[in-house]
Amino acid sequence: MTSAVETDRKPASEGGPAPAHTAGAEQACPIAPVLDIVFSRWTTPILWTLNEFGRQRFVELHRNIGTITAKVLTQRLRQLERDGLVVRTYYPEVPPRVEYEISELGRSLAPIFAQLSEWSLGHLPLVEEARQAFDAAEDQAAAGRRA
Description:
The chain is mainly alpha-helical. It is built from seven helices and three strands, in the order H-H-H-E-H-H-E-E-H-H. The protein has helices at residues 4-8, 32-38, 43-53, 58-65, 70-82, 104-107, 110-146, and strands at 56-57, 86-91, 97-102.
């Protein structure tokens, strides 16, 4: 049976992750599978929020992340639980309570996120400058073609 989470991922032929057993161009880059897991849409904000604020109930997590829909948050949490990056704890109370927290495996990504944050502080202004220079050159070239 295929879950909603599994159908949410694109097949490799459409730019999604390749199966682990597949050899080919995607396997030439050893970090590609990691990028597929960690940097898929909404995964990073979920992991960052759980790492920053600790264990949370669904409503708290949803509120702390912001613009994500409840359906997508549910799908992402299931996938992150399947990948071992998030732990879901169910408490059989009345009413039932469910909490989510980042796992030790998920927490091991913290240094990577810290490095990316540091890189962004020092380099995103340079990226923006490069984009502006590129766009200005493109605009100038387009103006030259029209003249």
